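In the present case, backbone shapes were mapped to integers, as reproduced here:
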Amino acid sequence: MGRCFPRRRTSEFLKFMDRIVDAYQGAPEIQVVLDNLSSWFGIITRQSIRCGNFASLTQLIREIEGYIARWNESAAPFEGRASADEILDKVTILERGYWKLLANNTK
């Protein structure tokens, strides 16, 4: 699932997370894996964006949305290299940061 925004700020991220929650309402649990954008955008850049010539932002967004749709047709799980303990340590750190972001955006 993806969404393009004109800016990359906390408010856009939270809108995207709300979209994910809405899409999976009723699911017993939702697990979201986030990285620093370099991994995912490295793949889309190599396979789609770098090859293109976009005359407008609208064309670029259409290409990104099309790429996501094509990717989802044959998607397979990523194989992680980190241990479970390493991941859980990072989740703890990120969770604290997430709640701080959320608290600052509701003021």
The CA atoms of residues 10 and 101 lie 7 Å apart.
